[in-house]
Amino acid sequence: MTSNSSQVPPLPPQNKEVASQIYYEGRPLPDNLINFSSQTGKELFKQALNEGYAEGYFNLSSCFSHQMDPAFCGLSSLSIVLNALQVKGAPVWKGPWRWWFDELLNCCTPIEEVKKKGITFAQFSCLAKCHCDVSVKRADRTSKEEFIADLKNVCSSSDVYMIISFSRAALKQTGDGHYSPIGAYNSDKNMALVLDTARFKYPSYFASADLLYNAMLPLDNETGLSRGYFLLSYNPSHKTISLCKLSSVENNPVINWTALGKAFCKDIPERLLSEKPNTLEEAAKVVLTDPLIMSLQHVLRTDIGNLEDEISESDERDVSTLFNDVKTTALYPIILSVFQKTQQNAPFDDSNEKQVVFATLFMLSAPPILFKNLEPELTKKLEFYRDRVDMSPTLRHEVERISGEMKELVMNICVCEIEKKPGANAFCCNGRK
């Protein structure tokens, strides 16, 4: 019997090339940027602190976390600021804990879509407006002097924060579009502290304010528009029903603004053109029976129903006032008639009433582009019913806010009224890419 130890071991496979792999442990900062943790960076920060231009840094740093995906810089920047502002209503993160977190900010654009190509300036604007007060500044419409004034204002306060959207290439970094919060400003050296959310790639750094301004000007290849910055603040007493805060509901399609934008820009206008409604009731039926719009209303009613256990008595009165104001509009009876005819013999209860209220609120707030294919006389009549002059302050505020949210997102997808860079990838009203 032959011993195993005496057997000749097999020869290793020959001529096999081992695939080379490259591993990155961050990238060195270009010479035009100063590492925050360097001695010079520390001196710049000390001076900014002494000048009173690092007031928001501590709240931001206590909530700072790096992005969890290479394309999540926008989501990460926003979650950091929402946590720094202590914005209420954060979704449940893990266990009972509520915390704003990258992957939970998926109401405007599906998270899988964000992973592929990030979010545009307009999509970020919408997402931010879903949760807090936002001032939007496009770089090509904002002077450098205004940008520096905003830097000083933001960095001398702990209740307003700035997130910039810029081109990395303009800073001599690798990559292109990126979002990050601003943590401090050194007025003597005119340099701002960028708290880079991609900590795996670059550390936080000081950059010239002039350089940052110029880095916001290059056109985004996706939209053909310049980037810019956002000023974010939070008023906890400002309670609203947000169209952006959508959730998926069992037996209903997942609602997202990409699909809704297509419905607003193309599907519903085409149905109005083909069905040629002769009355407002017929036009409202075309719009409100669209599957996505029906799901949107259902999701909103469900979300508000879930919210009622959490809102205070004063907030509940605000919602009740809004509902009552909607029911006093001239458009409400028309929407009620549509509902009664489509539901036939269904009993009319509190849930049905909420459906009619939300449908009316939607019709009052929808962007005009939705109705662009109506006959001129019918369009004129509808605009009369949608006139905000005689609305109560509560209703007018909510209609204007919802209208603004829808316009932000719809016009980001439907580019019929926006001059775009040739070849930009966006859905047009005529269905062309």
Can you describe this structure?
The protein is α+β, with helices and mostly antiparallel strands. It folds into 2 domains: 34-233, Cathepsin B, Chain A, CATH 3.90.70.30; 257-413, no CATH class. It is 43% helix and 10% strand. It has 15 helices and 9 strands. It has helices at residues 39-51, 57-62, 73-84, 111-117, 121-129, 144-155, 209-216, 257-275, 280-288, 291-307, 313-327, 332-343, 350-365, 376-385, 393-413; strands at residues 34-35, 92-94, 97-98, 133-138, 160-167, 177-186, 191-194, 205-208, 228-233. The strands form 2 sheets. A 7-stranded antiparallel β-sheet has the order 1-8-7-6-5-9-4, with helices on both faces. A two-stranded antiparallel ribbon has the order 2-3. The longest helix has 21 residues, at 393-413. 36% of the residues are buried.
SSE order and pairing:
Layout: E1 34-35, H1 39-51, H2 57-62, H3 73-84, E2 92-94, E3 97-98, H4 111-117, H5 121-129, E4 133-138, H6 144-155, E5 160-167, E6 177-186, E7 191-194, E8 205-208, H7 209-216, E9 228-233, H8 257-275, H9 280-288, H10 291-307, H11 313-327, H12 332-343, H13 350-365, H14 376-385, H15 393-413
Antiparallel strand pairs: 1-8, 2-3, 4-9, 5-6, 5-9, 6-7, 7-8
